[in-house]
Structure formats: C-alpha cells, structure tokens
Design brief:
Helix 1 crosses helix 5 (about 80-95) and helix 6 (about 100-115) runs antiparallel to helix 7 (about 120-135). This protein is mostly helical. It has helices at about 5-25, 30-40, 45-60, 60-70, 80-95, 100-115, 120-135, 140-145. It is built from eight helices and no strands. The chain has one domain (about 5-145): N-utilizing Substance Protein B Homolog, Chain A (Orthogonal Bundle), CATH 1.10.940.10. It holds the Pfam family NusB. It comes from Microbulbifer spongiae. Involved in transcription antitermination. Required for transcription of ribosomal RNA (rRNA) genes. Binds specifically to the boxA antiterminator sequence of the ribosomal RNA (rrn) operons. This is Transcription antitermination protein NusB.
Length: about 150
C-alpha cells in the first residue's frame, strides 16, 4: 500500500483512540490492537504507522512525557484523557519520527483535539506542542522561521 496523507491521518486517529483506551482500561497493548483490527476497517490506514505510534508511546512513556511536561501548568495525570493521549502521541512523533515535518505533527494533533477533545483543548495542545517542537526540532523550527 502506498502511504498517503489520508492513511497516516487514519493511523493517528486510531492510535489516539487506542492510547485513550490503554490509559482508561489498562488492557494490554496486544489486546487493544487486536480489538482495533477486529472493529475497524484498517484497509485505508497506515497500519505500520498506527502500530509504531501506539507501541512506541507505551514503550517510551517516561521519555515521551519528559519532552512536554516542562511546559504543562499541571501534572500529566490532571490532563483530560484525550489531551493526554494526543500530547503523548505527538511528542513521540516529534521525538522519533523526524521524517514527518513538525508542522504536520502539530496540525494533525490540533485537528484531533478539535474533533475529540474538550472545548478549546486544541489551543492548549497547540501551545504545548509548539514549545516541545522548538526543543526537539530546534533546527527545523529555526529554518522554518527564516523561510
């Protein structure tokens, strides 16, 4: 399957939902992933990307959270579950998927926050990820500001 922007978007959508479920239910990653494959049409989804985001966040949770917690005005546990899942997923992307431009990571996360998050969560997500990107992708952000 050719990887399209739409397939990546669906991968992020499902990964955010899977992370949400993992946070709330505490089921194993394998169980949650199997449920997603059984319950959703994954034929137009970048399944490898979904798997990388979902498992990558869980395996690197402390390091991922460490990239954005300095910019929070509360603890990670005090975030609403959608914002927590989105920040974890997006920070992982910023940290481990340098093949994806930082602006794409932020825009996709903001779009998901608008769709699934509480009112105005997208503004909070945008601000935290802007600061996280400035740290994790300093050269990319600086080059973008010069352009």
């Amino acid at each position: 399957m050719t990887v399209t922007a739409s397939a990546r978007r669906k991968a992020r959508h499902y990964a955010m939902q899977a992370l949400y479920q993992w946070q709330m239910a505490g089921a194993s990653l394998t169980t949650i992933e199997a449920e997603f494959h059984a319950d959703n049409d994954m034929s137009k989804t970048d399944v490898a990307y979904f798997r990388d985001l979902f498992h990558g966040v869980a395996k690197n949770l402390d390091a991922v959270e460490g990239t954005f917690t300095p910019y929070l005005d509360r603890s990670v546990e005090d975030l609403d579950p959608v914002s927590r899942a989105l920040l974890r997923m997006s920070a992982y992307e910023l940290q481990h998927r340098v093949d994806v431009p930082y602006k794409v990571v932020i825009n996709e996360s903001v779009a998901l926050a608008k769709k699934f998050g509480p009112t105005d969560a997208f503004k909070f997500i945008n601000g935290i990820l802007d600061r996280t990107a400035a740290t994790l992708r300093a050269a990319e952000v600086a080059a973008d500001k010069k352009a």
